[in-house]
Amino acid sequence: MIPRHSRHDFGLSRLEVLVVVAALCLLIALILPSLRSHGHNPASCVSNLKQTSLAALLWVQDRDQPFPWQVPLTRTGTLELISSPQVFRHFSVMSNELYSPKILICPLDKKRRAGADFMAFSNRNISYFVNLAAQFDTNGVPAPMFGDRNLTGGSLSNGFLRTLSSTNGLGWSKELHQHFGNIALADGSVSRVETQALHALVRTSAVPLRLAIPAE
Questions:
Q1: Helices (H), the chain
Q2: Average confidence (pLDDT) over 183-205
Q3: Integer Cα distance of 30 and 13 in angstroms
Q4: Residue 181 and residue 131: Cα distance in Å, rounded?
Q5: Regarding beta strands 171-172 and 181-185, do their DSSP bridges make them parallel or antiparallel, or are they unpaired?
Q6: Cα distances (Å, whole numbers) of residue 164 to 31, 131, 132, 156, 171
Q7: Percentage of residues in the chain with pLDDT exceeding 70?
């Protein structure tokens, strides 16, 4: 039989366990913000783009039509708005499929904020571009459909439309993901894309990429 006074030596008391748990919780609380601020949490952005691309594909399937921005307003699309800087219109038309505008924000985007609903929705509630020239298949490779807005290079017109027909100056800014970006393709897949892979996407595209980037 173990002497009563020595039992404490074989385990922690309830108070000691509580102290350890509290210390661990404090440590996690201190570490997580640092990880987020250094871009170590890309999974949420990928998940958001995945949900957005699937919403677009569902919109297409339900209506047996091309993408919304390739369909006239009379058929519930946004074709007549492709020259408008109101990029949010291309997303709001898919509100039933998207369910919530919160998935249209990259968690690392400090300049944008998640929208509460689609009633007061604007470009400020979006972190992602729309490829107005998106096709389901381009030379055997699905074309880009959505992606992070922090692109550089290409030809910028009207302050929101960036056309990528060559790789001159093409890349990603430091904003959001530290010189890389996430792109959702027309098959519903999402990939982390470095500059070299971005160049390859432009080269293999049968037509120039026409990206509507939501300006503030």
A1: 14-37, 43-63, 88-92, 95-98, 195-204
A2: 90
A3: 26
A4: 15
A5: unpaired
A6: 39, 10, 12, 9, 11
A7: 78
Residue 147, phi then psi, degrees to nearest 5: -175, 170
| Backbone phi and psi for residue 89, each to the nearest 5 degrees, phi listed first | -60, -35
Q: Is the pLDDT of residue 150 over 80?
A: yes
Query: 39 pLDDT band (50/70/90 cuts)?
Result: very low
Token pair for 160: 């929101």
DSSP class of residue 38 equals T
At CB < 8 A and 24+ separation, what contacts does 90-94 make?
90/130, 90/212, 91/52, 91/121, 91/126, 91/130, 92/118, 92/121, 93/59, 93/68, 94/55, 94/56, 94/59, 94/68
Q: How many residues does the chain have?
A: 216
Indicate the residue type of 186.
Answer: A
pLDDT for the residue numbered 49: 95
Tokens of 215: 């300006």
Q: Check residue 193 and give its pLDDT.
A: 92
Give dist(CA 187, CA 206) in Å, integer: 16
Q: Write down the pLDDT at residue 84.
A: 94
> In the numeric block, which tokens belong to residue 102?
């919160």
Which amino acid is located at 155 in the chain?
S
Q: What are phi and psi of 193, to 5 degrees?
A: -120, 115
Backbone dihedral region of 39: left (phi > 0), alpha (psi from -120 to 50 degrees) or beta?
left
